[in-house]
């Protein structure tokens, strides 16, 4: 099982955590929503939970709860800027289908 970040994503997370002045890493999970069923959720972690699985990539710790792990196993997070838009991109090998708006996915 693995979760990884590209170098660009890791640099973005590092800069943001430095600006926040706190944090131990990034939490990746899923929630039920949208037309395809699941959506990613990302948040900065100030304190880890005992049940979290922890992965480290480019010096960044990524925390995943046990319920989300089967849906995100093997995912690589990238960070991209396109014009005025910027954000994380999820390269998840488990995704079978995505909705037209790109907000949700199905495994």
Give a written overview of the molecule:
Strands 3-2-5-4 form a four-stranded mixed beta sheet. Strands 1-6-7 form a three-stranded mixed beta sheet. A two-stranded antiparallel ribbon has the order 8-9. It has helices at 7-20, 69-72, and strands at residues 4-5, 25-33, 37-45, 53-57, 60-64, 76-82, 85-91, 97-98, 105-106. By secondary structure, the protein is α/β, with parallel strands linked by helices.
Instruction: Please estimate the helix content.
Output: 10-25%
Strand order of the largest sheet: 3-2-5-4
CATH architecture: Sandwich
Overall SS class: alpha/beta
CATH topology: Hypothetical Protein Aq_1857, Chain: A
Q: Topology as H/E string?
A: EHEEEEHEEEE
Task: Please give the number of β-strands.
Answer: 9
Number of structurally distinct domains = 1
Radius of gyration: 14 Å
Q: Biggest sheet, in brief?
A: 4 strands, mixed
Please give the CATH class.
Mainly Beta
Average pLDDT, to the nearest integer? 89
Number of helices: 2
Spatial gap, N to C terminus? 16 Å
**CATH homology superfamily:** HesB-like domain
Strand content: 35-45%
| Low-pLDDT segments | none
Globally, the shape reads globular
């Amino acid at each position: 099982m693995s979760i990884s970040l590209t170098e660009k994503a890791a640099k973005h997370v590092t800069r943001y955590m430095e600006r926040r002045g706190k944090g131990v890493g990034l939490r990746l999970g899923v929630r039920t929503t949208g037309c395809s069923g699941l959506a990613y959720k990302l948040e900065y972690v100030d304190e880890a939970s005992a049940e979290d699985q922890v992965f480290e990539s480019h010096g960044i710790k990524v925390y995943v709860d046990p319920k989300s792990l089967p849906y995100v196993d093997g995912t690589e997070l990238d960070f991209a800027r396109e014009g005025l838009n910027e954000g994380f991109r999820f390269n998840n090998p488990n995704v079978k289908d995505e909705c037209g708006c790109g907000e949700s996915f199905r495994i």
